[in-house]
Every structure is written in C-alpha cells, then in structure tokens.
Specification:
The complex is a heterodimer. Chain A is an alpha/beta fold. Chain A has helices spanning 44-51, 93-103, 108-121, 137-149, 167-182, 194-200, 218-225, 242-245, 271-281, 295-303, 305-317, and strands at 6-15, 18-28, 32-37, 59-64, 78-81, 155-159, 186-191, 203-208, 211-217, 229-236, 251-256, 260-265, 284-291. Helix content of chain B is 67%, strand content 6%. The chains are: A alpha/beta, B alpha/beta.
Chain lengths: 318, 438
C-alpha cells in the first residue's frame, strides 16, 4: 500500500501560554476529500501549518508522502492555500500567477499558459493585466486559489478555502475541489462550517482545543456515533411542539433552529411515538425524517455546547 | 537556481516598474546636468563687465594705477575677451570722502537696470591704503567669493607694483616679477600618467562614496521594507512552502541590487555623457565651452569604474543581506529602526572615512579599512582613484568581501528562516542567537 499523503503522528505544538495542538494524529490517504473540522481557535490552521512545515512541532512528526523532509522538498506535488490570504498587492494578476507557478518549479511559458486557463476558468480573464490591489477580496482569493493549483499538485491543502466567498464563488470553488478529487488527487481542507464538510468530505477529523474529537470516514463516524436522529421542519403551530421536544423520555438531545430542528431520540424511544405526539398536538410539519446524525450534532454531543458556540454562530453566518 | 531567478526577476521587474523608480532614475541625470552647469554659472563669478567706481582719497593718486590694473583684467583667456571691469576714478579729499562715497553707493541700485551712472561696486582707497593695504569695497556682489578674491588679487598686485615703484624698482621688472604661477596637477598610477588632475580624483572619490552611501541606504531600506511587506501580506506563507529562505533572501537581495545597478548604470552613464559632451551641454545653457571644463564632473576612467561597480555590487549585497535579516526580525518598519541603526552606523563610518582617506589615501587607516568588508566598498574605490593599490591588496580585499558576503547571507537566512513567520513578537538577542544556531 502506498504511503499516506499526509501522516501526522502525535504532534504537539505549544505557543507562549497555551497548547495549540495536543498529541494530534491524523492520516490522509491518497485520493478523495478530507475535512479538518473544528470551531474557531481549535487548532486547524496550526495543524495545517505544521503539516506544511511552516511551523515545527514541539513533539511528534509529520510525514508527507512517507517522507519527513518537509513540504518544501515536495512543493511540486503540493498546493497550499493559507488561511491568511497574501498576494503582492502591486503585481499584475497574470504576473503573480506566473511567479507562483515558477516558485513551484514549472517553466515560465507553461506557467503563463496555465495562468491564462485558470483565470478564464475562474471568470477573471478580463482582470489578468490589472493589479492585485484593484481586485475585490473575493477575486483575490480566487487568484490565490488558482496559484495553489497552477502546478497541478497531487495533494491540495486548503485552509478555510470557502470563507469570505459569496455563494456563487463558493460554488465555483466547490466544483473545482470536487473535480480535483474526481481526478484521483487528494484534497485536505479545513473549515468551521460543518454542513459544508458533511456534503463534500469522504473523511473527516474533528478537532477541538487542539485535540482530536472524532476521526475517520464520514459514514463510519456517523455509524459509530449511533443513536437515532430525526430531522424536523415546521410549517405552523411551532410552539405546540415545545413540551414534546423537551420531554427527556422522548428526546435525548435537541438542536433547535426555530423553523427546523434536529434531535436525537432518547434511548428506548421510537420515532413513531414522537411523530404521533406531534400530530396529536396539531403541530404543522413540513418534514419528519429519520436521518443519520449530522456532523454538527456529533460535534455538539462529543464536545459539548460550550465548544459548539463558535461553530453554531459561524454556521448561522455562513 | 531557476527559482532564485524567478524571485530575482520578480523583484527586479516590480521595482523597475514603480513610478518612484522611474522618476528618481530620470531626475538624477537632470540633477547632474544642473550640478555641472550651475557651479559653472556661479563659480565663474560675473559674466559681464562690472562697473566699478573707485573713490580715490589716498591723496597720492593711487586710483590711477589701481584702475589701470583692473582695466587690464579680462573675462576669460582669449585676447578678444571683454574686459572684466570698467572703472571710473573719483578723486576726493578726506573731507569729501564720505559724501562722495555715499552718493556713489546710492547709485549702485541703478546698476541692476543697467542704467547709466549705475555702479556694480564702489571701491574706496583711503590715505593709508598704500601703507596698510586696507581698502573698502561696497557692492551687491560681495558674496561672490571668487569675484571678490579675484578683485582683491588684482588690487594687491597694483598696490605691490606701486610700492615697488616707490622703492625705485623698474616697472617692467615688477611686471615680470609679479607674473602668476600656474600649476597643473596630474595623477600618477603604477608609474604611469593617468591624465587626471588631483582635483578630479578628489571629486570622483567623493562622488562615488556619496553614490554608494545613498544607494545602500536607499536600496537597503527597500530590501528591508519589502521583507516586512511580505510578512504583513502573509505571502510569505505561500513562498516558504516552495522556496528556501536562502533562495528567497538571495533572490530578493539580488533583484533589488540589480534594480539599483540598473539605476546606477543610467546615472553613471549620464555622468559620462555630461563629462564627454560637456561643451555641447554648456552651449545649450548659453555657456562657453571652457565653462564646463571647470565643472565638478570629471571623466571616469574605465578601471576605476570597474572597481567601483565590483565593490558596489558586493557591498550592496552585503548590506542588503543585513537589511533583509533585520526585516525578518521585525514586524513593522518602525520596529526595524533600532536594529537598522547599527547598519547605518557601519555605512556612515565607511562613508566618512572617505574624507580622511582623501587626505591620506595610502595611510594605514585606508589599508586597514579596505580589509574590513563593511567599509571596503567605500574606501577601496577612493584609494583606487587617488593612489595606486597593489593588486594583492585588491584581491585580498575582494576575497574577504566575498567570504563576508556568503557568511552574511547564510546568517541572514538563518534569522530569516525563523523570523519570517514570527508574527507579532520581537525577538530578544538571546532568541536571535538560538535562531541562528537552530
């Protein structure tokens, strides 16, 4: 079996005063989309910087393609989009992409051709000769995204690739990420938006406070979590459901979104009972579905609502 | 290597494209032409015949020989040159002196409009002038040092002639005896004449030291600022994943250095043009061909230019590496100042050493400083231009510079490697030492 693309072995990184990453292990196999999830401040970016060799771990080690020589030696095989976007503001967009390509070791002519292709693909063809600083933030992000992918790396590491993008651009980026995975390449990306990861990832690692909460193939994570989960959506008379949803004999845990809710059935309780109770009270339902637990639900159950405050808020914003 | 070239190209192209670069590149040649023309205009004093009223209150007719001597002076060397002064003598008794003098002084204002009876200056010869050599001159142009010393020289000669004549010395003999000495100075290098005058060497040395001083400060700071900019724009994070600190540093220093060299080439080129086409440029400003010949821009011999460029490049890289390292240590331009001051001190010591070297280019200080890589870029071109430097010394000095440069780039890269990602935190000296050893 080929070596894992990324292998993090019980890595610890401390900064003055706090431990950003604590005994973290994860493995990204070849191919597919791998999500690194967690609330803000969980240590996602630190983990990615450790993987990229931008930070040195205090303990443990990072292997890329089975080698511990660091990302720079393998930079031709790896594309990286940092969380903090940075481009030379005064450079022309096309020149900038060519330069980024060259630093990855592809020839100037090649880089120019690919840069043109990417700009067209991202709808930035008309901006090729504009200065970076003349572009909107979202456009700059797309340019940097293209820069990370220009050399067609086998492994693409994206730190919060969708943050700050409008839905249309987020969709464009998502399609590209999916296309990369479809070509058999590997994508590792971090996000604090659980729903997004849930739709895209084959594998996930959820971290909180620098430690792994759960990790594995998405289906596995959900199956292991177990329990029966119900997704609800209300059409009218929502207040009448209140008593039922807070009944601990029926509902073990409730994640309330107002017009919709996701809940975990109490042990021994049956979704049928719940449905009957809701109908009896005259609650108008648009949706009643027995579902797999959402990553969000798993996360809250594992970490507790305190740690979930950040993602819930961010999720609502996203 | 290809990656370094990519970095070099980026740094160079981006720098050369900026408006500041283009403007400064064009402005300096303009400035040089002005430098060449203006001192010529100012130093040669007046270019028209000065009308001088001589008030003769000496009582012995001193006005006559003095005015004769002044009338003999011409503007320029040619026989048909216009006279330097037109003189009118106003004899006056000691009692009338003040009234006559003040009347004439009142009319100096008219000289500006070139009106008749307007005087550029009023010279007063008193009763004791011959004995004491003291006389007074009133004029609007007393600040023109060269004009004044020339006038003083002329009057001194006239007075000396009169005194000698009174002592019974023959007038023709006096004239012979008073002939001025003229000295041509020529530099000798390796036992051969170089065709340069001593004054030329001084000016070349000064000019080169100055150019190096300015450009290291200017471009060194740019290197530093651009490192900081990369840190603040976080582009560094992308670059560190594909480039080594050494590649980034060397590429940056070389790229900025090349931009500096390109600018220097244009500047030095324009100096060449001004010095070789001086007469034509002088003509454009309505000056005689000989006016620019006295201008402070001498021609630069090829050997000196080569030495200068060699030291410029090495010195630039050395200081550039230091500045880049400082940039890597700091997070804001303000923060860099406390470290940059050390580098600035080096540069200043190097630059000001040039002045003492000009006095004694072959002395021990000069030799010692040529072996110290931080000072050699300043001192060596000066020594080369003013004296002949043994080839062994030159080779040793250059060798030491290359070694120091590599050591410096290596050291800077060590700091760069760690410092580049240290956001928001300034290292202590102890930490700095750990980064270097890490």
């Amino acid at each position: 079996m080929a070596a894992a693309n990324v292998r993090v072995e019980s890595v610890t990184k401390r900064f003055a005063g706090h431990t950003a990453v604590n005994q973290l292990s994860m493995e990204v196999a070849s191919g597919g989309i791998y999500g690194l999830l967690g609330p803000n401040g969980a240590g996602k970016s630190t983990t990615i910087r450790l993987i990229m060799g931008i930070l040195e771990p205090d303990q443990g080690k990072v292997l890329l393609f089975g080698s511990d020589h660091g990302s720079r030696k393998l930079s031709q095989r790896i594309g990286y989009l940092p969380e903090e976007r940075g481009l030379y503001k005064k450079m022309k967009v096309l020149d900038h992409l060519i330069f980024l390509g060259e630093t990855k070791g592809i020839s100037r002519a090649d880089a120019r051709r690919r840069a043109h292709d990417w700009l067209e693909r991202l709808g930035l063809g008309a901006w090729a000769l504009k200065k970076v600083e003349d572009l909107s933030k979202g456009m700059q992000q797309k340019v940097q995204f293209a820069g990370a992918l220009l050399h067609e790396p086998e492994l693409v590491i994206l730190d919060e690739p969708f943050s700050g993008l409008d839905p249309v651009n987020a969709q464009v980026m998502k399609d590209i990420v999916v296309a990369i995975a479809a070509e058999g390449r590997t994508v590792l990306f971090s996000t604090h938006v659980m729903e997004q990861a849930e739709r895209m990832c084959d594998h996930v690692t959820i971290i909180a406070r620098g430690e792994t909460v759960v990790s594995g193939p998405l289906a596995q994570v959900k199956a292991d979590f177990g329990g029966r989960h119900v997704a609800l959506a209300f059409s009218h008379d929502r207040p009448r459901a209140e008593a039922i949803l807070t009944d601990r004999a029926l509902v073990a845990h409730l994640d309330d979104y107002g017009a919709s809710a996701e809940l975990q059935m109490a042990a021994g309780a049956d979704p049928g009972q719940l449905l009957a109770a809701l109908v009896r009270e005259g609650v108008g339902l648009r949706r009643f579905e027995v579902v797999e637990p959402s990553l969000h639900a798993i996360f809250i159950a594992k970490v507790g609502a305190d740690a979930a405050v950040a993602p819930a808020r961010a999720g609502a914003a996203a | 290597m290809k990656k370094i070239i990519a970095v070099v190209r980026r740094e160079f192209v981006e720098r050369v494209r900026t408006r500041a670069f283009v403007i400064s590149t064009v402005m300096l040649p303009v400035f040089i032409v002005l430098m060449a023309v203006l001192p010529g205009l100012m130093m040669r004093g007046t270019d028209h015949t000065s009308r001088v009223a001589v008030v003769d209150a000496s009582g012995i007719g001193l006005g006559q020989p003095v005015s004769a001597a002044m009338l003999a002076e011409k503007l320029g060397d040619r026989p048909d040159a216009p006279p330097r002064y037109s003189v009118q003598v106003f004899p006056a008794s000691a009692a009338q002196l003040a009234a006559v003098r003040d009347g004439l002084i009142a009319r100096t204002a008219l000289a500006k409009d070139r009106r008749a009876h307007g005087w550029d200056g009023v010279m007063v010869l008193g009763a004791d002038t011959l004995a004491s050599g003291r006389l007074a001159y009133y004029g609007g142009n007393v600040g023109a040092v060269q004009s004044m010393s020339q006038l003083q020289r002329t009057v001194s000669n006239a007075l000396a002639t009169v005194r000698l004549g009174k002592s019974g010395v023959d007038a023709a003999l006096v004239k012979k005896a008073m002939a001025a000495a003229e000295m041509d100075t020529t530099k000798v290098s390796d036992g051969k004449l170089t065709g340069q005058s001593g004054q030329d060497s001084f000016l070349i040395a000064y000019f080169m030291g100055f150019v190096l001083y300015i450009s290291i400060l200017l471009y060194g700071q740019q290197t530093m600022t651009s490192v900081i900019e990369e840190k603040t724009s976080r582009i560094m994070e992308v670059l560190t994943s594909s480039l080594t600190p050494f590649q980034m540093l060397l590429g940056k220093v070389l790229g900025v250095g090349l931009a500096g060299l390109a600018q220097m080439a244009i500047w030095v080129g324009s100096v060449f043009v001004v010095s070789s086409k001086g007469a034509e440029i002088g003509a454009m400003f309505g000056m005689g061909a000989d006016a620019l010949r006295q201008s402070p821009i001498p021609s630069v011999p090829a050997g000196l230019l080569l030495v200068f460029l060699l030291y410029f490049a090495l010195g630039f890289l050395l200081y550039g590496a230091l500045y880049a390292a400082i940039g890597a240590m700091c997070n804001t331009v303000q923060e860099t100042q406390q470290y940059a001051i050390f580098v600035t001190v080096f540069i200043l010591v190097g630059f000001f050493a040039v002045f003492s070297l000009i006095k004694d280019p072959t002395g021990g200080l000069g030799v010692a400083m040529s072996y110290i890589p931080f000072f050699a870029p300043f001192t060596m071109p000066v020594r080369w231009s003013m004296s002949s430097v043994p080839p062994l010394q030159l080779a040793l000095s250059l060798g030491l510079m290359v070694v120091a440069l590599l050591a410096c780039v290596w050291l800077a890269a060590r700091i760069y490697r760690t410092g580049i990602l240290m956001y928001g935190k300034k290292p202590s000296w102890g930490e700095l030492w750990r980064w270097i050893r890490a």
